[in-house]
Design a protein that fits this description.
This protein has about 500 residues and is mostly helical. The chain has one domain. About 80% of the residues lie in helices and about 0% in strands. The protein is built from 17 helices and no strands. Helix 4 runs antiparallel to helix 7, helix 7 packs parallel to helix 9 and helix 15 packs antiparallel against helix 16. It is found in: Membrane. It is a multi-pass membrane protein. GO terms for molecular function: antiporter activity; xenobiotic transmembrane transporter activity.
């Protein structure tokens, strides 16, 4: 992706457009026409455009936020149930959830984002038959990826000890991780299914399924952990079961719903063809998102090496849990941004794509700012939702200003990543993430945390300033300089390649 060669932020009214897709795709002809009307001042066009864009955006974003929030609440509720067993169990679940499980989550979610790019652009171009094949190809690749991940889970205790974690915490965390092995393969099916449905703006059914599953999950978790005394392993097994319930229910919807009749034609041998080209995009998507999700995983692992690791892990994991909860809101907007941008590019609407970016970024930032203010208002009471102890409460309160800054940044960064997925920029963003996060952010965090003896606060502040903030600024700069007409051309070439060769390839 040669994004640095682009020059215009928004196409002008005189820019020639590609022929829009036939009616029935995911693009908005009305929005494109409003934005192209040079007889109106930009402010009037923006207001009219917002009136069209906001319903399209919220129809995707609100159910997507609900889905990601509820899925995250399932993991968080498991952490709360297990955390009530004691501080060691809380530290173990935090390390297992954030230090090990997030590894698989990031990898699977990243690889599943290939479906998001290709299905979104194909649906926008009114080529529904391509979506089902993309879904199946992704599930094949992700299931194969799950096998070595399961082996790594089996050796999680040794891995954590080798990384320098204390033996008692590593042993307890491994028990929890063993119960999450079935969850790996639920991820392998869930993320492609989610992206397949989101590309068609079908999000509400997933939200209803998640709500029902959450209620069942809470009941089963209470039964397994509190009543049956199954401890960490029981909590993890219930979490895995809940994810499989979501997968089976969503797949049942795809097979039975008339809304998916054109996009799901049943299982096909084409799912095993062209896997090499599909793997290239999946790998680029995985690297991009894994570098982001693993970044905060590394933060937790580093915290386990600080003085008083149990207190550092407890306080930091609580903040990371809150951050992850609010982050799920931004991930919902990420999904909406990806769908709207990819649909408009596939439909040949460059102005609408650019305008969608502006609207979704502004809305996500506003929501994140409100959440940051709430966190600052309840900073002294925040830790008591998770565990008792005044020492943990003081440590969490001290970290809350930094948590608020992180929330605001995360109101923008995930949305811009969604734009990147919608455009197919995954490889470029992966390079940005390597530089910002791992060449600058991690070393700066280690320097502040260990050499200046600032502890968890130093590690986190260094990684936020050196990594997240710099990456967000770079993505903003690139997005503002994007030539959306060129992105429309690239989307058309990408889909034409698939039709000619039956392979979903992206240009290098």
């Amino acid at each position: 992706m040669d994004s640095t060669s682009t020059t215009t932020a928004t196409p002008t009214a005189t820019t020639p457009l590609l022929q829009p897709a036939p009616h029935g795709g995911g693009g908005s002809r009305e929005l494109e026409a409003i934005l192209a009307d040079a007889s109106l001042p930009w402010a009037r066009r923006a207001l009219r455009g917002a009136a069209v864009e906001l319903p399209l955006l919220l129809r995707i974003a609100l159910p997507a936020v609900a889905v990601y929030m509820i899925n995250y609440v399932m993991s968080m509720s498991t952490q709360i149930f297990c955390g009530q067993l004691g501080n060691l169990e809380l530290a173990a679940v935090s390390l297992g959830n954030t230090g090990i499980q997030v590894f698989a989550y990031g990898l699977m979610l990243g690889m599943g984002s290939a479906v998001e790019t290709l299905c979104g652009q194909a649906y926008g171009a009114n080529k529904p038959g391509m979506l089902g094949v993309y879904l199946q190809r992704s599930m094949v690749l992700l299931t194969a990826t799950g096998v070595p991940l399961a082996v790594a889970y089996a050796f999680s205790e040794r891995i954590l000890v080798l990384l320098g974690e204390s033996e008692s915490i590593a042993r307890a965390a491994a028990v929890f991780v063993y119960g999450l092995i079935p969850q790996i393969f639920a991820y392998a099916a869930n993320f492609p299914i989610q992206k397949f449905l989101q590309a068609q703006s079908i999000v509400a059914p997933s939200a209803y399924i998640s709500v029902a599953t959450l209620a069942l999950h809470l009941a089963l978790s209470w039964l397994a952990v509190d009543r049956l005394g199954m401890g960490l392993l029981g909590g993890a097994l219930v979490l895995s079961l809940s994810w499989w319930i979501i997968v089976l229910a969503q797949f049942g919807y795809i097979v039975s719903s008339p809304r998916c009749r054109e996009t799901w034609k049943g299982f096909t041998a084409q799912a095993f063809r062209g896997l090499g080209g599909f793997f290239k995009l999946s790998a680029a998507s995985a690297v991009m998102l894994c570098l982001e999700t693993w970044y905060f995983q590394i933060l937790v692992l580093i915290a386990g090496l600080l003085k008083n690791p149990e207190l550092s892990l407890d306080s930091l994991s609580i903040c990371m849990t809150v951050n992850g909860w609010v982050f799920m809101i931004s991930v919902g907007f990420n999904a909406a941004a990806s769908v709207r941008v990819s649909n408009e590019l596939g439909a040949g609407n460059p102005r609408a794509a650019a305008f969608s970016v502006l609207v979704v970024t502004s809305l996500s930032l506003a929501v994140a700012a409100v959440c940051a203010v709430v966190v600052l208002c309840v900073r002294d009471q925040l830790s008591y939702f998770f565990t008792g102890g005044e020492a943990v409460a003081r440590a969490v309160s001290d970290l809350c200003p930094l948590l608020a800054v992180t929330l605001v940044l995360n109101g923008v960064q995930p949305v811009l990543s969604g734009v990147a997925v919608g455009c197919g920029w995954q490889a470029f963003v992966a390079y940005v993430n390597v530089g910002c996060y791992y060449i600058i952010g991690v070393p700066l965090g280690v320097f502040l945390g260990f050499y200046l003896d600032l502890g968890a606060k130093g590690v986190w502040s260094g990684m936020v300033i050196g990594g997240t903030m710099m990456q967000t600024l770079i993505l903003l700069w690139v997005t503002c300089r994007t030539d959306w007409n060129k992105e429309v051309e690239k989307a058309r070439v990408r889909l034409d390649k698939w039709e000619d060769k039956k392979q979903p390839l992206l240009e290098d």
